[in-house]
Amino acid sequence: MWDYSVTLIATDSSAYRLLPLRFMRMNSGHDRDILLTSETGEYMHITDPQLQALCRFEIKPDTPFYKDLLARHFIYEQGGHDPVPEMTAQYRSRKDFLFQGPALHLFVVTLRCNHTCQYCQVSRAPLGGSGHDLSEADALAAVDRLFESNAYALTVEFQGGEPLLAFERVRQIVEWVSERNVVEQRDIQFVITTTLHHLTDEILDFAKQHRIQFSTSLDGPALLHNANRPTPSRDSYERTVKGIEWVRERLGHNAVSALTTLTSRSLEQPKAIIDEYVSHGFSSISLRPLSPYGFASKSAHRLDYPIARYLAFYKEALAYLLEINQQGVYLSESYASLLLKNILTPFSSGYVDLRSPAGAGTAALVYNYDGYVYPSDEARMLLEMGEDGLRLGTVHQPLPELLASPVMQALLASGVAEALPGCSDCAFVPYCGADPVEHYARQGDPVGHRAFSSFCKKNMGLIKHLFGLLQDGDDDVQRVLLSWLNRRSYADVRFPGYGG
Ligand code: SF4
Question: For position 212, what pLDDT does the model report?
């Protein structure tokens, strides 16, 4: 076992009572090797004797340790200050995302694509393929669903295949949404996820008019990118880089961001991938592992890799990122930034995969090209693998009906991390999430078994590593991490000023 939760009974003479808490041995080599976390996400690093004394109700009220435990809601005094209102407010802040409906709406306007990426081979259709585009009637109905969400800030993201191959549908949807929004008055952000290979002046003019952002894929240097993303002309990298420059020239430097997909090949070159992002002036890089979706199982064997290999890659990459950030380059790692927000602030990053209750369906909806609605992009990719079990319904059903569907009920029943076997006792649960779709994809069961879960191994490894850096990293490392958290330059962050 990695950790234990505590439910102990105090005697009448005890000065304090315990509030719900969890703890974990970090194997840090540090004296204060036990991480103590509260239900609301506050944390302290303590020693073994301190933990034992805490559980035996032996902490003396006049000690700084006692006062810290009291202030951070690990203990309370009977008849003393009532901690419940403060904890309720903290819990409400951390779970604030529950008060709004789906904010991310993905429109899969076409499955057609000019690439033949191995990790995506079953979720694309040939360039000239028919029957793989979202119809006008379905697109219009999906726009109705979008505005049925009560979320004030909405992101409308166009996905594929390659969405620019169905640009007329993209244009229609943007125009319908913009027209409706004159009355609705929401804060709407449009994003097109694209290779940028099919850009035209007309597309860029339209994007400028509607302040559309572009998100592209850049897997690393030319050799790696072209190996990961084959096209008939073998120039995927060159065309994407040209597209990045073109978007920046017309819409500004920050109008395009990039994501990397890490194949087994990528894990051998963390520095080269990061150098590539530095050379193109990106301010963020996402070092996400390959998803187990979207490729046939025969390829999965070749493309997938053990999570331990990914973690070794990630740590090396993060060390390099910390080094170059100290030299004045601002390049944050996006997953670390999200986890830092969960750990160091009272708020949740809101990131779909790091939510409990799970974000699939509650935070995001996918309107597929065939008119069906899915709770996440991963769920619709399972469809392309022959699994249609995670469908919520069709775009013509009202949002409340989709969100009350049996699939949503099953996902929510297995999507509360605090109630899942393994997670319920884990000290990292305030910062982690539940991902029933991934567990369904990997283990055939949305609850899943954490001992064999890649999701758990990844988050366990990354959260532990970040806590290690926060506890033991020098001031310069901590300044970089804070600069990512606050999105400020390294030079602007003077005082780390946290820890425990
Ligand atoms: S998934 Fe997250 S919360 Fe659950 S056991 Fe793993 S690290 Fe802990």
Answer: 98
